[in-house]
Specification:
Elements: H1 6-10, H2 52-64, E1 69-73, H3 76-84, E2 92-96, H4 101-113, E3 117-121, H5 126-133, E4 139-143, H6 155-162, E5 167-171, E6 189-193, E7 207-211, H7 214-227, H8 233-244, H9 246-266, E8 270-274, H10 284-290, E9 297-302, H11 306-314, E10 320-321, E11 331-333, H12 345-351, E12 357-361, H13 367-381, H14 388-392
Parallel strand pairs: 2-3, 2-4, 4-5, 5-6, 10-11
Antiparallel strand pairs: 1-7, 6-7, 8-9, 9-12, 11-12
Bound molecules: pyridoxal-5'-phosphate (PLP).
Length: about 400
């Protein structure tokens, strides 16, 4: 297990300005760059192909993921799309049955159009994954921990099983390079939605693909320019600023998560908690081995159903009811009606997404406030029937 390079994150692009000695890196908004002379382009010619501000972020992320290089993309989904460009027509892709909803939508649409063949499998089931790998896939997509049940799969074991012929890709969004570095576990490519922990302030939508080899870096760089999905310079600058504090934010996210877990474990309204750090979590041993920590995402089932969920979320004031994750602010989400609403009820049941399941993205607020908030909400969520006045009252009284 390797340790996150905190200094590289803090110092991304610091003191790189040759002209004026600006301490923080300049923002290059220019769409184009003058040629030195006929037939003499400079390092940069056009901002879709290359941009000095964006390159600082790409280089920093590559270093943090122990990659040879990378591309910073306009969104996490365009990072996913970029990876798919490397595949020949009709290639077979093996993806987790509970992968990120947007990835699921992209892959299943490509499958329906006949562009790719896609098989969604339960990657924690060894015989299922072995059966799929026998069909000689071109790409193995891995996502761990998964959303919203925090299922964990063994990246090293899966990459070994797939072998060198298969392109092995890990979506590392849920942990960030601060807590897991998939290339060191055998992955060829790492994908990020930088929207989440890397930027960490819920004010940029962005993505990145980091590659193990120079050859793969060259391919993704070519494709990113070809399909035009590179990130804007301004978004890149904001994301660099977010990245500098990733490790200190993460420390607070994790400390808060540990205390919130201790509180939830004792609360009578809680039926079940999904968190890889708990001894009874099926992925606990693997998470302990391949992650630096268990992360700041967790989900739990409360006693009751939709009414109790509604009462709980309406009685919280420090957990904003919203999708997304990884920002400094705490969020609460109801996967069945929000992030996973596109899944049919049957598919939700199969994936274990119940009506009483709640997901938290634990922020970096004062933890006593967060616990008091949850306590207030949980103490009221078992009241039936729910009165409107109770729902509206968001004060802690
Ligand atoms: C959010 C997310 C994405 C997509 O990223 P966007 O920035 O929203 O396009 C992909 N994978 C995971 C795991 C995510 O959480």
């Amino acid at each position: 297990m390797t340790i996150f390079n905190e200094t590289a994150a803090v110092r991304a692009g610091i003191d790189c300005d040759q002209q004026h000695g600006a301490v923080t890196p300049p923002l290059y908004l220019s769409s184009n760059y003058a040629f030195a002379d006929l037939n003499q382009p400079r390092k940069y010619d056009y901002s879709r192909s290359g941009n000095p501000t964006r390159d600082i972020l790409a280089e920093a992320l590559a270093e943090l993921e122990q990659a040879a290089g990378g591309v910073v993309t306009s969104t996490g989904m365009s990072a996913v799309l970029l990876v798919m460009q490397l595949l020949p027509k009709e290639a077979l892709v093996i993806a987790p049955h509970d992968c990120y909803g947007g990835t699921f939508r992209l892959l299943s649409t490509f499958h329906e159009k006949g562009l790719l063949q896609v098989e969604f499998v339960d990657q924690s089931n060894l015989s299922d994954i072995q059966r799929s790998l026998k069909k000689k896939p071109a790409l193995l997509w891995i996502e761990t921990p998964s959303n919203p049940l925090l299922r964990v799969v063994d990246v090293h074991a899966l990459c070994e099983l797939a072998g060198p012929e298969v392109l092995k890709v890990v979506d590392n969004t849920f942990l960030s390079p601060a807590l897991q570095q998939p290339i060191t576990l055998g992955a060829d490519l790492v994908v990020h939605s930088t929207t989440k922990y890397i930027n960490g302030h819920s004010d940029v939508v962005g993505g990145a693909v980091l590659a193990k080899t120079a050859e793969l870096t060259e391919q993704i760089t070519w494709w990113a320019n070809c399909i035009g999905i590179t990130a804007s310079p301004f978004d890149s600058l904001l994301t660099i600023r977010g990245l500098r504090t990733l490790h200190v934010r993460m420390k607070q996210h994790l400390a808060n998560t540990e205390q919130i877990l201790a509180f939830l474990q004792k609360h009578p309204a809680i039926e079940k908690i999904h968190y890889p750090g708990l001894n009874n979590h099926p992925g606990h041993a693997i998470a302990k081995k391949q992650q630096q920590h268990y992360g700041a995402m967790l989900s739990f089932e409360i006693k009751g159903g939709f009414d109790e969920v509604k009462s709980l979320v309406n009685n919280l004031k420090y957990f904003t009811l919203a999708e997304s994750l990884g920002g400094v602010e705490s969020l609460v989400c109801h996967p069945a009606t929000m992030t996973h609403a596109a899944m049919a009820a049957e598919a939700q049941a199969k994936a274990g997404i119940k009506a009483n399941l709640i997901r938290l993205s634990v922020g970096i607020e004062q933890v006593d406030d967060l616990i008091a908030d949850l306590e207030y909400g949980l103490n009221r969520c078992q009241i039936r029937p729910i009165k409107k006045s109770v729902i509206k009252d968001r004060s802690h009284g």
